[in-house]
Structures are given as structure tokens and as C-alpha cells.
Amino acid sequence: MKIVQKFFAxxxxxxxxxxxxxxxxxxxxxxxxxxxxxxxxxxxxLAAKFKAQTGQTVRFVDCGDALMALSRAELEKGNxxxxxxxxxxxxxxxxxxxxxxxxxxxxxxxxxxxxxLYESLESKENSLITPFDFSHFAMIFDTDSTxxxxxxxxDLTNPxxxxxxxxxxxxxxxxxxxxxxxTQSVFGENALDFWKKLKPNILTLSxxxxxxxxxxxxxxxxxxxxxxxxPAFHVEFDKTNRFxxxxxxxxxxxxxxxxxxLKGAKNEDGAKQFIDFLTSxxxxxxxxxxxxxxxxxxxxxxxxxxxxxxxIPAKTLFADxxxxxxxxxxxVKILSx
Length: 337
Hints:
Elements: H1 2-21, E1 27-32, H2 34-37, H3 42-54, E2 57-62, H4 66-75, E3 84-88, H5 93-98, E4 102-103, H6 115-120, E5 130-142, E6 165-168, H7 174-187, H8 191-198, E7 202-206, H9 209-217, E8 223-227, H10 231-238, E9 243-246, E10 252-262, H11 268-278, H12 281-284, E11 294-295, H13 304-309, E12 316-317, H14 321-336
Parallel strand pairs: 1-2, 1-3, 6-7, 6-8, 10-12
Antiparallel strand pairs: 3-10, 4-10, 5-8, 5-9, 5-10, 5-11
Helix pairs in contact: 7-14, 8-14
């Protein structure tokens, strides 16, 4: 009996050792956010086509929102449980790079992706983060509402919008952080004053895009922070142009989303194949009608709904990520008072 117990103890130890320190084959583990991993998101279709092409299984781990995925990867530095992280964007790229948790990889499709997308992710030279989609942040307006549509960020502080704006938590949500970046780029040193005036008009600070946009779609408020491409969904599937992306003269920041291999990945070869597939025409063609973002690969054709309901701002704004983080900390204090 003792011999048998000893055998199983050794076997369990060996399996544990291999799972923690060995390599993994035939499965690529990807940290991502809820809307990507959802049944209706891009994840399932990408996984099915990737397996058909390579024989490898993709397991998406839903971390909530992209910033939550990044936090999880930071906590696992040195011994990541995933191979790839999806959703690092323009406002979180510096944080991810500074954390030293990423391994460089130059996608086979890099030449088909605009250099400015790599530049936005601070990865033009180091190839640490590969762009896979992009869009501009915008306020989405319900035209069935009784309130007038705002014409600028400053208009959002008007008392007519009291408890009528849904925002996202900048600590956990990339669009939430994107809205903070937007206010920082427009108002500069006066951004905090803007937020103090805006506070009475915020209905809720949702933890993720899925939660916040769901509240908006259910009619809880007439305004929500999202992307200029979001109304294309309603045109495509709901057959309505009720929801509109508002373009402001001051301009809009954009969000470039990227994928990266985690340093110490247990299936690095599979991770490289996944990023190559994600940025290929076949992989990218899945994104417009699931991600509701523009594909990074310029060779992909867009559906008609994008021509009808995904306006392109005349001016793209940029913000200093360090200033945005400082502003975020100050905003959280104000909103919690």
C-alpha cells in the first residue's frame, strides 16, 4: 500500500511540476475580455477556424475587461498561466511594456498593418504588441430620447443630462480609461474641473463595456461611452439607426487593440501561430461583425453597415498615458466622495 501511495505521490508531483514549469502543446491559452470570449463574440469563430487550420485548440479565459486581464498577467509575471493576452490598447500599452511581461514577436502579416497602429501601441520597433483592431471613442446617443444630443464634451456637464450618462470604470475598462484620456487631451490641466461638473450627470460607472452598453441598450440612459463603430451593430442586426455616434469638433481619441505573447508562455509556438492567424485576412474578416471594430489588416473588406453607421472623426486626439493615470486616480477620489 505504501509503495502504491508513494507511486501516486510521485506521479502527482510530476504532473504538477510539468503543468507549472513544463511546456504545453496543442492548446493556446488566451487572456481576454468578456465581449471577445462571449458566445456572440469573435472568440468562438476564431478558435474554430484556428483549430481547423493548425490543429491547435484555443482556450479563451474571460478576465472581465481588458485591464483586468492585464492585471492578472502582471500578477503572474514570471510564470504566466496564459500564452497570449488580448486587448492591450493605446492607453495601457506603456503599462504592459513597463511591466516586462511581454515577449517580442513580429507577425507574418506586419506589412499589411499600418505603422501608425504599431506606433500607438509603442511597438513599432520592439514588436512587443501586435495591433489587431481599432476604432475611435465616442458618445453613443439614443435618438429616441427626450434630451437634445450634446455637441461637445463640455455639453455633457449641462444639468439637462443629470443621471443620463453611463460611463465605465477607468480602473477596469479600456473604454473607461479611454474616456479619461479624451478629457485629458481636451481640457488638459482643467480636466479635473470638468469631472467635478460632470459627476451629477453620471448614472453609473460600470465595471466593463458589456455591462455598461447593456444598460444603455436596455434604455437605462440616453448616453454611453463606446466606439464610433458601435451603431453599425444596430444597423446590421436590429435594422435600426436609432443609436448614433456623436462626432465632436474637438476630436476623438482612438483605441488600437493589440495582442501579445506573455513572457514565459508554455506554448510559445502556438502563441505565434495564433497571432499570425489573428492578423491574417481569414482571421481579421471575423472581427467587423463580432468585435464591431475596424480590422487592423487593411486588406479586409468592410460590411455595408460600417458605411452607414460608423463615422470617422476628422481629428484624432492623443494623450500622455502617465498624465492619464494621474488624472484617473484623482477622478476616482472625486467620484467616491
